[in-house]
Amino acid sequence: MNNLIRVCCLCCVFCLLFLVSWSQWTTTPDASGNIYTNNSGNVGIGTTTPWSRLDIRTNGSAGTGYYGINLQNPSTAAYSSINLNLASGSNSRSLISSQQNNTGNGAYLFLQTTDATGTMQPRMTLSDAGNVGIGLTSPVRLLDLSGTGNWSGSGGIRLQGNNPGIEITDAPSGQRWLIANGVVTANDGFLGLAYNFTTSTHNIVVTKTNNVGIGTYTPGSNKLAVEGTIAARKVIVTATNPFPDYVFDPAYPLPSLDSVANYIRSNRHLSEIPSADSVAKSGLDLGGNQTALLRKIEELTLYAIAQKEQLGAQAKAISEQDKKLAIQQQEIDSLKAAVKKLLEK
């Protein structure tokens, strides 16, 4: 009798297990089943028509029904991870994992992939503060990047598109800066920095020929073109031509003052100095103009020295004449006195 009871109990247990398993796992298109597998080996959860090896569907709008997959690890030191292995027996894999932060609240999300040597490397991190790190696991800014190469390798950022750029906006004031790659013509691009930008306003541009424009995006052939005033405490110009100390060489052909006067009367400006019309049309070469002005100053110095020497010679001659006149005056005075005595007798 006891054996019969045991057999009946076992049969009941098997029946219950069969019913439970049938309600959860089915190979027939039964919409009431929670887990379904078709003949091709695809598994569906919440769907009777799985499209992939694992197809999870959820129709919840809030609470636990909202989550399609929930991975939970009770240990705060461990990770909840998804491992994507691309080939059996190889180290070609990617890992998506999450870990609780040090304070006990909040979590980090990590994306890692193996490099060419098969070593797992951190690629992207999303911190509990919302900071995104690329190439590091502890980002301290909204976007924090780190790489071991230079700009052309893993240490650089590349933007591609139609006039790609980076906009920096101060939210309270709405003031905007834009760093962008622009195109003036089909063969003339530039990198521009603009403040509260429009399509035609650029504060600073750098062309593909390494020319810089400030206040203009068309610097032309100038290495630096500025639309506005330049203020500086000191400007150093490196001259490529010899500085005009050669003016003081004894062999220097100093123009005569008569030739200088004739040139001024004919041209209304000094020789080798640009005219007002030339400056208005083509601007002023600061380095060349300073050199020319110094040459004129040194020539004027030579004129002044020559004039001083001439005046000195004239002064000496006048002094000698004054001495002679003084002697002559003394002789005249002596003669006058002698004549007066003769007349008195």
Structure description:
The chain is an alpha+beta fold and 345 residues long. The chain folds into four domains: 1-60, no CATH class; 79-147; 165-226, no CATH class; 244-339, no CATH class. It is built from four helices and 16 strands. The strands form three sheets. It has a six-stranded mixed beta sheet, with no helix packed on it. Strands 11-12-13-14-15-16 form a six-stranded mixed beta sheet, with no helix packed on it. Strands 1-2-3-4 form a four-stranded mixed beta sheet. Residues 11-24 and 29-33 have low confidence and may be disordered.
What's the topology here?
Elements: H1 2-24, E1 25-26, E2 35-37, E3 43-45, E4 54-56, E5 80-85, E6 93-100, E7 107-114, E8 120-126, E9 132-134, E10 143-145, E11 165-169, E12 176-185, E13 188-195, E14 204-207, E15 212-214, E16 224-226, H2 257-267, H3 276-282, H4 286-344
Parallel strand pairs: 1-2, 3-4, 9-10, 15-16
Antiparallel strand pairs: 2-3, 5-6, 6-7, 7-8, 8-9, 11-12, 12-13, 13-14, 14-15
